[in-house]
């Protein structure tokens, strides 16, 4: 097992690895079938508006619309999310190539009482690379981003059954707002939004 | 800001509104908006045509991201002054929000509701809302600045 690792901001060419880890996390959360960003062919993808950045990456990786959406949404003109990735050297004797073994996806939200917040959307380290301090280091980096961007707090969701994660966060000062203040997350899906949008 | 304080009062957390007008202005209308708002206004006086209006309700929202389905519209705050409820203002605001969501190609709209807030829960469920906390077991956590600073500066 490699003891050395590094954390850095994700780059557009990391999207295939991000997608891979997003799917691994989905599996861990047992909801893999709900990943609806499906893989389609290049013919469908070419119908979309794509920038030169996409054209460059297209040559090197398998094309799928999930990858293209992830690329545009995170690295286009207006990023809807940011990512940190954790990488380890591919071989102990080679300093060149690296493998991405963990990631954190975050963006900024807003609380009208206290201002900007950092919202941690996804956080995952591959099973084989846990227990090495990678998770702690990612969280440290996230904390630095939050402080630098003048965020009052970091918010995130944890599934009630995910005891290892709950312990991990509570050790670092996390409070459970759902239990303490009774907040419940609701959603209104697109079919109902369309219904309301077009109602007379 | 006045309406934020009213909403805070409704939620019994008045003294926790520490945001200033200056911050609100910069954060919403500066170079990079961190939030967007819709406001509901009524004419000030029935007999006056002066064009003056009073803001009696608002919705604050921004865009979030779900790596499984893409862009989402996140409804942060939603409030109509008590004297102006039951007139369809809330429904109209929600309709406008839905139009924004559809236009911006959002897959869903997410928001928090306090478990004791039965009128709001009914309002949203009537319009197709599902309770993800109950259905999927999600709990909202926070790590406040003092702990973030601690982690940020740890060796």
Automatic annotation (TrEMBL), chain A:
The keyword Lipid metabolism does not apply. Pathway: Amine and polyamine degradation; putrescine degradation; N-acetylputrescine from putrescine: step 1/1. Keywords: Acyltransferase, Cytoplasm, Transferase. GO terms for molecular function: diamine N-acetyltransferase activity; spermidine binding. Its EC number is 2.3.1.57. Residues 54-200 form the N-acetyltransferase domain. It is an enzyme of class 2 (transferase). Homodimer. This is Diamine acetyltransferase 1. It comes from Haliaeetus albicilla.
UniProtKB/TrEMBL annotation, chain B:
Pathway: Amine and polyamine degradation; putrescine degradation; N-acetylputrescine from putrescine: step 1/1. Gene3D superfamilies: 3.40.630.30. Its EC number is 2.3.1.57. CDD domains: NAT_SF. It catalyses: spermine + acetyl-CoA = N(1)-acetylspermine + CoA + H(+); spermidine + acetyl-CoA = N(1)-acetylspermidine + CoA + H(+); an alkane-alpha,omega-diamine + acetyl-CoA = an N-acetylalkane-alpha,omega-diamine + CoA + H(+). Keywords: Acyltransferase, Cytoplasm, Transferase. It is found in: Cytoplasm. GO terms for biological process: putrescine catabolic process; spermidine acetylation. Pfam families: Acetyltransf_1. Residues 8-155 form the N-acetyltransferase domain. The keyword Cell division does not apply. It comes from the Eukaryota. GO terms for molecular function: diamine N-acetyltransferase activity; spermidine binding. GO terms for cellular component: cytoplasm. It is an enzyme of class 2 (transferase). Homodimer. Belongs to the acetyltransferase family. This is Diamine acetyltransferase 1. It comes from Haliaeetus albicilla (White-tailed sea-eagle).
């Amino acid at each position: 097992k490699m003891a050395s690792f590094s954390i850095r901001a994700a780059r557009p060419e990391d999207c295939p690895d991000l997608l891979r880890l997003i799917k691994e996390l989905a599996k861990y959360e047992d909801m893999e079938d709900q990943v609806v960003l499906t893989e389609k062919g290049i013919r469908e993808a070419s119908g979309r508006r794509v920038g030169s950045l996409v054209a460059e990456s297209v040559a090197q990786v398998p094309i799928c619309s999930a990858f293209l959406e992830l690329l545009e949404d995170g690295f286009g003109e207006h990023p809807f999310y940011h990512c940190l990735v954790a990488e380890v050297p591919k071989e102990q004797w080679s300093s060149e190539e690296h493998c991405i073994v963990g990631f954190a996806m975050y963006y900024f939200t807003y609380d009208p009482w206290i201002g900007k917040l950092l919202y941690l959307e996804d956080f995952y380290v591959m099973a084989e690379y846990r227990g090495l301090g990678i998770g702690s280091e990612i969280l440290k980096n996230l904390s630095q981003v939050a402080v630098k961007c003048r965020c009052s707090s970091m918010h995130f969701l944890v599934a009630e059954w995910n005891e290892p994660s709950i312990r991990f966060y509570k050790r670092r000062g996390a409070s459970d707002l759902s239990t303490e203040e009774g907040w419940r997350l609701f959603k209104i899906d697109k079919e109902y939004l369309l219904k309301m949008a077009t109602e007379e | 800001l006045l309406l934020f304080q009213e909403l805070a009062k409704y939620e019994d957390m008045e003294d926790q509104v520490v945001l200033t007008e200056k911050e609100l202005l910069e954060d919403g209308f500066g170079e990079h908006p961190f939030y967007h708002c819709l406001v509901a206004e009524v004419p000030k006086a029935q007999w006056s045509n002066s064009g003056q209006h009073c803001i009696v309700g608002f919705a604050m929202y921004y865009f979030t991201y779900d790596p499984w389905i893409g862009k989402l519209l996140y409804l942060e705050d939603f409030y109509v002054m008590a004297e102006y409820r039951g007139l369809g203002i809330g429904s109209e605001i929600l309709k406008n929000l839905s139009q924004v969501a559809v236009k911006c190609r959002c897959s869903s709209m997410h928001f928090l509701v306090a478990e004791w807030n039965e009128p709001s829960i009914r309002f949203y469920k009537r319009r197709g809302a599902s309770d993800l906390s109950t259905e999927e077991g999600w709990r909202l956590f926070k790590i406040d600045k003092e702990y973030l600073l601690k982690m940020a500066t740890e060796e």
